[in-house]
Design a protein that fits this description.
Layout: H1 3-7, E1 16-20, E2 29-31, H2 39-43, E3 50-55, E4 58-68, E5 83-84, H3 93-105, H4 110-117, H5 120-123, E6 133-138, H6 140-143, H7 154-166, E7 169-170, H8 171-176, H9 181-189, E8 193-198, H10 205-209, H11 220-230, E9 238-243, H12 249-262, E10 266-270, H13 278-287, E11 292-295, H14 301-312, E12 318-321, E13 333-339, H15 356-367, E14 371-375, H16 380-387, E15 392-396, E16 407-412, H17 424-435, E17 439-443, E18 452-455, E19 472-474, E20 479-481, E21 488-489, E22 503-506, H18 510-520, E23 525-529, H19 539-548, E24 553-557, E25 570-575, H20 579-582, H21 589-601, E26 612-617, H22 623-630, H23 633-647, E27 654-662, H24 667-686, E28 691-704, E29 707-716, H25 719-735, H26 737-740, E30 743-748
Parallel strand pairs: 9-14, 9-15, 10-12, 10-13, 11-12, 13-14, 16-26, 17-24, 17-25, 23-24, 25-26
Antiparallel strand pairs: 1-2, 1-4, 3-4, 3-5, 6-7, 6-8, 18-22, 19-20, 20-21, 27-29, 27-30, 28-29
Helix pairs in contact: 3-4, 3-15, 11-12, 21-23, 22-23, 24-25
Bound molecules: adenosine-5'-diphosphate and zinc ion (2 copies).
One zinc ion binds at residues 464, 466-467, 469, 482, 484-485, 487.
């Protein structure tokens, strides 16, 4: 197509809308503008706006990606859009840029990428308009209340105090601050407060940056980190804030954010699901008076859209949320913070398999702003980037305040007789800490009573019919449950093979350890924290509240306890079994186990008293484990990086994984063999060398949820080569007859290969 025609001729016939339409196809779709639109209206169409289009027999909401003057679609097949839904782009250019990058990089259907980015209501075509916000404010009589009034209604008094400081109380704050509805009603009935609907406005930069709570005085390393980040506020830089647990990373974030707010710019804070607790949010709310949009899973669709639009319009100056909050547009972006950057929850495990960490870096690049990745246990990828100078490496080596670092020790259990998983030395230590009036945390990475039920006579174990996995025994309501497909069945009464009644639980689980500890320490509270005891709303808060009261207790739990919590009175952390993770087949097994151990260890001794961490292992001379215990995570991680270098595994190479599954064992392998052939052919035709193909092989857990699974791994030391091959392979594959009849997926930079 001659250039001339592309740029000048703007008659309605030649404007083509290139759209991302919600469809499973890896391509864009071209449409004409709506038929009745004037020339001016057509010229006003911009990328980032939503349009309603006919798609097959249906009408769908799509988003404009670009405006073109030429299309491959024959005139007779070209359809017109039905309606333009926005008067201004819903997504700013920077986000659209990230969106296009992501669709290409992850080889994912663009329509589905965009579905992932928008709140449900906007996806459904709702107008992008902020609903009015109902707020409570003090009435004149309310303002006249003195401190001594309402003495007998402490919950009402709290609300009045809040309103004196904050001026208005909205619905989201009511839930977050756990404000009692009856107290609100009582205040309203007495005329102390009134409800008003009002347009939410942003606070002034001065107000926003003004702390209601004093900033802490930073130590030398913190000061250095804050200053370094500060100097880069005018462009893109990636910082790795590599600070031991309790070193005051959050204080660094808060102080940098204060500076960003003072420039009338916004901050986006991404945290793992598990850390998005009321305590985290409270820390931000206590520090800043500005409007904070919190994107958590409990929001209604309307609340989510509201938060999204408030961020887009610059009303909310701080946005805090989990993985998908990354897609929140910002009117005046200033900074992105991604806390616990090593956390696996930043990777979406199905559908659009993106890494929020990697995409956040792309976004910061697009927005021309700095990003801070924080962790006590950085991923090897990020550490490698910091060591090679691509990121700045900001180290906080010491705990903040006067907290001492925890001391780690191994307990060799290879020659010990264990009682329900506990060695004698460990029990002695638990007793000693409890007797000193302190708290103990016991970490065990498996919920339920025991990993399985076994027959003492013939060796039969209870297995899941739908997975290559054992059924976990649960006791609090007795049943067997598969943790992979959630199949449940009653506990067997006798062995289905030999009819023996000699069935017993084998292995460790949180319920079993809880029962054992309760019997060993009858006078001490034993609190179990796992997914089963915290299923209902507030259950976790109630448990944590009890711990925070500070009385001696034994906390037992899974990795839910490992992250983010601050337990000032926990002085002993016990890890019952470090071995499973260290010797897993996954090449990331050691890295993840070490991160988990250091994070759990980090829960101890966060106040004055030094913390002790005891790790039981049958491999006390294991080299990497010793490097972790006797040196620190940094040394350990460098050892691992050397290993990865010599085996040419990530971050020294790049991976992409094709997965396929089917009801018959043969089908996935046959399909992936076809993919492999196709890949070889393309590589040959295009002269793409340096991409290795491994497989197809059965997945480590071949059968899961009734399906047989197989995988094909692509590996290259040159990312562009791998990307080139994938961008040619995926569209061809998608167009093939076989692909239409198979269940398959592609995972670029896979995190696990189970
Ligand atoms: P991290 O996020 O690195 O685990 P936190 O930010 O939670 O660490 O800080 C741990 C504790 O140290 C908190 O109680 C915090 O208030 C305190 N703290 C942080 N910085 C300082 C400082 N400069 N002086 C005194 N205490 C501090
Ligand atoms: Zn048997
Ligand atoms: Zn199962």
């Amino acid at each position: 197509m001659p250039k001339q025609m592309q740029s000048t001729d703007k008659s309605p016939q030649t404007v083509i809308l290139r759209l991302a339409v919600p469809s499973p196809l890896r391509r864009f779709f071209d449409y004409l503008p709506p038929k009745d639109l004037s020339l001016e209206a057509i010229e006003a169409i911009q990328p980032g706006m939503r349009v309603r289009v006919p798609f097959g027999p249906r009408a769908l909401i799509a988003i404009v990606v670009s405006l073109e003057s030429h299309t491959e679609v024959p005139q007779t097949k070209l359809r017109a859009a039905l309606e333009i839904l926005d008067v201004e782009p819903l997504l700013p250019k920077s986000l659209l840029g990230m969106f296009l990058w992501a669709a290409q990089y992850y080889q994912h259907p663009p329509g589905d990428v965009f579905q992932n980015m928008l709140p449900t209501l906007l996806r459904q075509g709702r107008p992008a308009k902020r609903p009015g916000n109902k707020v409570w404010q003090l009435s004149e009589t309310g303002k006249a209340l003195e401190d001594g009034d309402l003495r007998r209604a402490p919950r009402q008094r709290e609300i009045v105090a809040f309103l004196k400081e904050h001026e208005a109380l909205d619905k989201s704050a009511v839930t977050e601050l756990d404000i009692s509805a009856s107290a609100l009603i009582a205040l309203q009935a007495n005329g102390f407060i009134v409800m008003q609907e009002r347009e939410v406005k942003s606070s002034s930069a001065h107000d926003a940056a003004h702390s209601s709570q004093q900033a802490l005085e930073l130590n030398q390393e913190q000061t250095n980190a804050v200053e370094t980040i500060q100097q880069t506020l005018d462009g893109f830089t990636c910082h790795l804030l590599d600070g031991v647990t309790g070193s005051g990373k959050t204080e660094v974030y808060l102080q940098v954010i204060a500076n960003v707010l003072a420039q009338s710019r916004q901050a986006l804070v991404l945290v793992p699901e598990i850390s998005l607790t009321p305590q985290t949010i409270a820390r931000f709310r206590q520090r800043f008076k500005c409007r904070i949009a919190v994107l958590h899973s409990g929001l209604t669709d309307t609340e989510r859209m509201q938060a999204w639009l408030e961020a887009r319009d610059g009303i909310a100056q701080i946005v805090i949320g989990t993985r998908s909050a990354l897609f929140t547009p910002l009117a005046t972006p200033g900074l992105i913070i991604l806390d616990e950057e090593h956390d696996s929850s930043f990777k979406q495990g199905e559908g659009f398999r993106y890494s929020a960490r990697d995409l956040a870096i792309v976004r910061a690049q697009q927005e021309k702003i700095p990003i801070v990745l924080g962790s006590a246990t950085p991923s090897l990828e990020s550490l490698h980037n910091a060591l090679s100078g691509r990121y700045t490496h900001l180290l906080l080596r010491e705990r903040a305040g006067n907290a001492a670092p925890p001391v780690l020790k191994l307990i060799d259990t290879s020659h010990e007789v264990l009682q329900e998983g506990f060695s004698e030395p460990l029990l002695l230590q638990i007793r000693a800490h409890i007797q000193r009036g302190q708290q103990v945390l016991v970490f065990i990475n498996r919920r339920g009573f025991a990993p399985t039920l076994q027959c003492g006579d013939c060796g039969w174990t209870a297995e899941c019919n739908r997975c290559d996995a054992r059924m976990t025994l649960h006791r609090s309501t007795p049943h067997l449950r598969c943790h992979h497909c959630d199949t449940r069945r009653p506990v067997d009464y006798f062995c289905p093979l030999c009819k023996s009644k000699n069935l017993h639980p084998i292995g460790l689980g949180t319920e079993r350890s809880e029962a054992f500890l309760a019997q060993q320490f009858p006078a001490t509270r034993v609190l179990r924290v796992d997914r089963d005891t915290t299923r209902r709303k507030n259950e976790l808060d109630i448990l944590l509240n009890e711990v925070h009261q500070g009385k001696p207790c034994i906390l037992i739990g899974t990795q839910m306890l490992a992250k983010g919590h601050h337990f000032p009175n926990v002085t002993l952390v016990a890890v019952l079994d470090a071995d499973a993770g260290l010797f897993s087949a996954d090449f990331r097994g050691q890295e993840h186990t070490a991160q988990l151990l250091i994070q759990v260890a980090g829960r101890s001794g966060r106040a004055g008293a030094a913390g002790e961490v005891l790790i039981q292992t049958r491999h006390a001379s294991h080299e990497t484990l010793n490097s972790l215990v006797n040196e620190d995570y940094g040394h350990f991680a460098r050892h691992l990086l050397q290993e990865r270098h010599s085996t040419q595994m990530p971050p020294f190479s790049y991976l992409a994984l094709f997965r396929a599954e089917a009801l018959s064992p043969q089908a996935p392998e046959t399909f992936l063999t076809m993919v492999q052939q196709m890949a070889y052919r393309i590589a040959d035709e295009q002269g793409i060398e340096d991409v290795m193909l491994m497989g197809p092989l059965p997945a480590p857990m071949e059968k899961r949820n009734g399906k047989f699974r197989s995988q094909l791994l692509l590996q290259s030391t040159a990312r562009p080569k791998l990307q080139q091959l994938l961008s040619l392979l995926c569209p061809q594959l998608e167009a093939s007859k076989e692909a239409r009849n198979a269940r398959w997926s592609i995972d670029v930079d896979p995190q696990d290969m189970i």
